[in-house]
Amino acid sequence: MEADKFLTNAALTMKERGKTYDKSNKERSMASTVKAFNAITGKGITESEGWLLLLILKQVRQWSKPGYHEDSALDSVAYSALLAESLSNKSMD
Q1: Is the pLDDT assigned to residue 38 strictly greater than 70?
Q2: C or N terminus of the chain, fewer CB within 10 Å?
Q3: DSSP 25
């Protein structure tokens, strides 16, 4: 698959997940997730750090077994975009 197709498919996947999981119909659940994590653990991670954590998770899954894992690849593209958005909106929190 070519790079532009990954971008298109990742965007479509984000929209579908947003409809399924987020009240705003966008994939913007990280702020609430981080707030809950911080309340439970007493930590203070940021939204951007939450997206980075998920991106790392998808990379670990991609490289944990031989072969290509489409879900991990598409989610990595989407999480990279969401991380970039978060960083640009929050000036690195």
Answers
A1: yes
A2: N
A3: S
